[in-house]
Task: structure prediction
Amino acid sequence: MLGGAYLLFGKKSLDKSNNSPTAVFTPAATSQAKPTFSLKEVAKHSQKGDCWLVIEDKVYDLSSFTNHPGGDIYLQYCGGEATSAFQTKAGRGQPHSTEAKNRLKNFYLGDLNREN
Result:
């Protein structure tokens, strides 16, 4: 089973003389870089069931999010910028709770690239 972990998390070398794994191991990067997305790409995901939005230059995929306490109000922001709406609960002047901010992390896709 240990050999499987090597394959998932790094590269292992084969001893060419007997085709068996050697003790040489090169670890993979400990954290993989998240991709970046343009606003144009985010805009392609603008409906219920295919909903990406941007909050503080981070892209989130809320396509599978169905339990929003405020109902479907967030859907109007799918495909675009939602920072102000998230910070003010869609203009109600109240920030989202710490719990909501923590849950949002589960939907993180990558960062926004404003240059494209």
